[in-house]
Amino acid sequence: MKFDEIYIGQKFEKKFIVKSDHVLNFAEITGDKNPVHIDEEYAKNSIFGGRIAHGILLLGYVSSILGMEFPGPGTIYMSQNANFLRPVYVGEEIKIVIEVLEKQMEKKRITVSTNIYNKEGKICVEGRALLSLKFI
């Protein structure tokens, strides 16, 4: 997508299933093997009542959208703020909604919201990112 085609208020939505193998691979790659993520028995007895995804894995799904779909290849992810409000469970379907909030013409940058919702429509991760679009 070209910078000139992007407008304030523009939205992009995509659904993902948080798969067990994604969580286990993320734990292996990063070394974050917190048992609430990888041990079903431990997680059942936690405050969550089941295995949950790593918050940063969820932001990885956001990154895949930003870099590959909206705005797409050439996008540079400059910063990300996130508030983790609700757990996302392994096997759960989530919806990521990206919305353009600001556009800086002179620097070819945009600010977007990066919110993640569960299947009930409740926000799980509330975020905001700054993107450079100099290369698209």
UniProtKB/TrEMBL annotation:
Biological process according to GO: fatty acid biosynthetic process
Domain (MaoC-like) ranges: 11-115
Xref: Pfam families: MaoC_dehydratas
This protein's UniProt keywords: Lyase
Gene Ontology MF, one: (3R)-hydroxyacyl-[acyl-carrier-protein] dehydratase activity
Listed InterPro entries: HotDog_dom_sf, MaoC-like_dom, UPF0336/Enoyl-CoA_hydratase
Protein name: MaoC domain protein dehydratase
